[in-house]
Every structure is written in structure tokens, then in C-alpha cells.
């Protein structure tokens, strides 16, 4: 005899698969859903009734008929429900209210101000409490999705290891669920970015993806055969802690010469400031910032590159050199179908992608040269929040990749 719990699970899975089919294929009829999924029309009708009642699906016109009654068409309704997406970085916390297609309805950005450990967790909880208090549609919120750098156990909802924020074994998912009484999901940020490209980006046809992001640190997300690869302890993708300069600068992880120490934005910023103040280098950056080094941003750096500034071009070449070592090693190890690179120093900087392609073409084995496919993210400046949205879509609704 089938247990009630088993039956309920089957019903939930059927509902998720049917909802995902309507999301991808709609407007679509009930009969076509049943045909596509090879399940009974009765199962589809029952699930669709539940989805319509919840507001997830709406009836939207009628389709063509070869004879008899015209079928009623179904369409995914992303506006009825919302999700709260949170992106934690070493510099800021973004919190956004989004619909189920990732459209941002409301967003707040909070500077971290060098907070670490329990202090940043308390700051997050206080900021989220204020954000939730201002949400007049909380009854329609499907849950909270949090993404963060570092080693994350998505199954237990634990931040296991983040040296920059000094977060170790933090049960963040349970803390948030307990306080706000909303289903909560937690994942590594770069894994989420890779998922975001599937759900909201232009690369949904690719199954083997290496997603690299450059910000306060350097992270890597891996998708193998359409599935996020997390590794034994959830620590796969720590490309920022691979050695590119043996015996080089000491890293917070304890190693020397880590990639992260040479290509993240703080390192780039320090290089620019040192070149101006210590080495007396002439650069167009000084004019762009009106001699105020506090105004140096990734956007200023990219603008200087576009103006063919000598110092900025030298720094860019240095970044490309270090980054190419790590990427070429990964190409030879995993042979990804697609490499996506994102981050403030990459956004609106096509020369970055061009130069990394050129550099790698001289570093990989001959058979792979023509197959190198490197692209910048297709998600735009909100790639982090879209990544957060994708985590809850896969976790709660079991949307398929």
C-alpha cells in the first residue's frame, strides 16, 4: 500500500513539473501538457486546478482545434507571488523583492562597512527585518533566497567558511527561517550565478559551464551535465585560492600567491593607488577622479582602459596574465563547453574578454584552441540578484534546467 507521504510527494513533484512546463511552453493547453510529459490528463487537470487557485497559473485565451471544442490555454503568472533575494558580498548586502521571473520590484543596498563575524550577521538580520516590515505583500512571498561567497553547505543551510567576513559554521538558513517564518534557501554566490544564466540568461542550451566572477574576491561556479557541481564538502570552485605566483603575497587562507590576491578589485585598486602615489605614474585616471583617489572605482578603471591609458592597460594585461594561468588549468582539467566571466571590471569591458581569449589561445593544447568559448554574463548588472532568484526557483519549485 502506498503511504500518504509518498503520494503527497508525488503530487508535489507532478505539480512542479507541470508548472515548469507551463512556464517554459505557455500558452499551452492541458492536453498538450499531458502529452509532453506523458502523464494522465486527470493528473494534469488536478495539478492545474491547484496552480490556478494559488495564482501561479492563469487561463489565457483559447487555442486552435482540429475539431470539437477549442482548448483553453494556460500561462505562467509570475506577478501574483514574490520572492526576497539577498546577495551578501564583502562590501555590501543587497536585498530585493522580485517576482517569479526575476523582475526587481524593490531593492535596498547596504554597505557592510567592514563588519565581520557575528556583527555582519546581526546587521543582515536587522536590515532584512526593516525590509520585510515595509513589504505589504508578504502573504504572497514564497520565501527568502540568500547567496554568499565562501564555502556553503546548501543542504544544511550553513555558511561553513568565509575568511574575509570571518564566518565559520553559521546556520544562517535556520536563523532566518526562525525569525521570519518564511522558507529560506542558502547557496554559494557563483553557483547561483551559473543557475541564473539557465533561468534568466542567454546560455540555457549549455550543459557544461564554468562561471567565474571577479569582485572583492574571485569565485568559480561549475555546472557539469546541467547540474551544479559542489564537491565533497561544498568547496568546489575555489579558484581564487589556486596558486599563480609561487611564494607570492600571503593570502588570508594561509597560502601564498593565490589568484585572488592579484586580480580582485581591492588588489587592482591598490595597484592603481600605489602607481600614482608611490611610483608617480602619469595616468588619465588622475583627471577622471580630479586627483581624489577615493573616487577610483571599477567604472573609472574601465573608462581609462577605453581611453587607452597606458597604466590601466598595463594593469589589465597583468590581470589577464594571472587569470589565464588559472583558467587554462581548469580548461585542461574539465574541458567546459562555455566560460562565463562577470564582475564590475568585466561589465561593459569587451576588451577584457577579447584579451583573455587571445591569451588562452596560446596556452591551451592545440585541439582546444578553436573550441574556447568565453563570454561575459548575459544577466547585466543585477546578475547577483537574479542568481539568488534562481536558487529559490530550483529549490522550492524544482524548476528543471
Q: How many strands in all? A: 16
With helices defined by DSSP (H or I, 4 residues minimum), what is the helix count?
Answer: 14
The poorly predicted ranges are none
Q: Measured on Cα atoms, how large is the radius of gyration?
A: 24 Å
Would you tell me the structural class of the helices and strands? alpha/beta
User: Span from first to last CA?
Assistant: 33 Å
Shape: globular
Folded structure, characterized:
- Helix content is 42%, strand content 21%.
- The protein has helices at residues 4-25, 30-37, 41-54, 117-133, 172-180, 189-200, 260-263, 265-277, 284-288, 298-306, 310-334, 350-361, 366-369, 383-396, and strands spanning 28-29, 57-62, 72-76, 82-88, 92-99, 104-111, 141-148, 151-153, 158-162, 167-170, 184-188, 209-214, 218-224, 227-228, 338-343, 374-376.
- The longest helix is centred in the C-terminal third of the chain and has 25 residues, at 310-334.
- It is globular, with a radius of gyration of 24 Å.
- Keywords: Carbohydrate metabolism, Xylose metabolism.
Set down the secondary structure blueprint:
Elements: H1 4-25, E1 28-29, H2 30-37, H3 41-54, E2 57-62, E3 72-76, E4 82-88, E5 92-99, E6 104-111, H4 117-133, E7 141-148, E8 151-153, E9 158-162, E10 167-170, H5 172-180, E11 184-188, H6 189-200, E12 209-214, E13 218-224, E14 227-228, H7 260-263, H8 265-277, H9 284-288, H10 298-306, H11 310-334, E15 338-343, H12 350-361, H13 366-369, E16 374-376, H14 383-396
Parallel strand pairs: 4-7, 7-11, 12-15, 15-16
Antiparallel strand pairs: 1-3, 2-3, 4-5, 5-6, 8-9, 9-10, 12-13, 13-14
Helix pairs in contact: 1-3, 2-3, 6-14, 8-11, 10-11, 11-12
Amino acid at each position: 500500500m502506498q503511504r500518504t507521504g509518498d503520494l503527497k510527494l508525488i503530487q508535489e513533484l507532478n505539480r512542479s513539473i507541470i508548472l515548469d512546463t507551463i512556464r517554459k511552453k505557455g500558452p499551452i493547453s492541458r492536453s498538450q501538457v499531458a502529452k509532453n510529459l506523458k502523464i494522465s490528463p486527470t493528473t494534469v487537470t488536478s495539478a492545474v486546478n491547484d496552480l490556478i487557485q494559488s495564482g501561479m497559473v492563469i487561463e489565457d485565451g483559447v487555442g486552435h482545434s482540429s475539431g470539437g471544442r477549442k482548448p483553453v490555454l494556460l500561462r505562467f503568472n509570475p506577478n501574483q507571488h514574490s520572492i526576497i533575494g539577498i546577495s551578501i558580498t564583502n562590501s555590501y548586502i543587497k536585498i530585493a523583492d522580485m517576482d517569479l521571473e526575476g523582475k526587481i520590484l524593490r531593492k535596498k543596498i547596504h554597505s557592510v562597512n567592514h563588519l565581520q563575524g557575528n556583527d555582519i550577521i546581526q546587521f543582515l538580520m536587522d536590515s532584512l527585518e526593516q525590509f520585510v516590515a515595509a513589504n505589504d505583500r508578504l502573504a504572497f512571498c514564497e520565501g527568502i533566497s540568500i547567496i554568499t561567497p565562501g564555502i556553503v553547505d546548501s543542504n544544511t543551510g550553513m555558511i561553513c567558511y568565509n575568511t574575509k567576513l570571518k564566518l565559520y559554521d553559521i546556520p544562517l538558513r535556520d536563523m532566518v527561517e526562525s525569525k521570519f517564518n518564511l522558507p529560506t534557501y542558502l547557496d554559494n554566490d557563483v553557483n547561483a550565478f551559473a543557475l541564473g544564466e539557465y533561468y534568466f540568461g542567454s546560455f540555457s542550451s549549455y550543459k557544461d559551464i564554468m562561471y567565474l566572477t571577479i569582485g572583492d574576491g574571485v569565485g568559480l561556479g561549475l555546472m557539469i551535465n546541467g547540474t551544479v557541481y559542489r564537491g565533497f564538502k561544498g568547496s568546489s570552485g575555489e579558484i581564487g585560492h589556486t596558486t599563480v605566483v609561487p611564494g607570492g603575497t600571503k593570502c588570508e587562507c594561509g597560502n601564498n600567491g593565490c589568484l585572488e590576491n592579484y586580480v580582485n578589485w581591492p588588489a587592482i585598486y591598490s595597484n592603481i593607488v600605489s602607481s600614482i602615489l608611490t611610483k608617480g605614474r602619469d595616468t588619465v585616471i588622475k583627471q577622471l577622479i580630479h586627483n581624489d583617489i577615493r573616487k577610483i572605482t571599477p567604472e573609472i578603471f574601465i573608462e581609462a582602459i577605453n581611453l587607452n591609458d597606458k597604466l590601466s592597460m598595463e594593469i589589465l594585461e597583468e590581470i589577464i596574465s594571472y587569470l589565464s594561468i588559472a583558467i587554462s588549468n581548469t580548461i585542461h582539467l574539465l574541458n567546459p563547453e562555455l566560460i562565463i566571466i562577470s564582475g564590475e571590471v568585466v561589465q561593459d569591458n569587451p576588451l577584457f574578454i577579447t584579451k583573455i581569449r587571445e591569451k588562452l589561445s596560446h596556452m591551451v593544447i592545440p585541439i582546444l584552441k578553436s573550441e574556447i568559448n568565453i563570454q561575459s554574463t548575459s544577466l547585466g548588472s543585477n546578475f547577483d540578484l537574479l542568481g539568488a532568484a534562481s536558487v529559490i526557483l530550483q529549490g522550492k519549485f524544482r524548476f528543471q534546467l
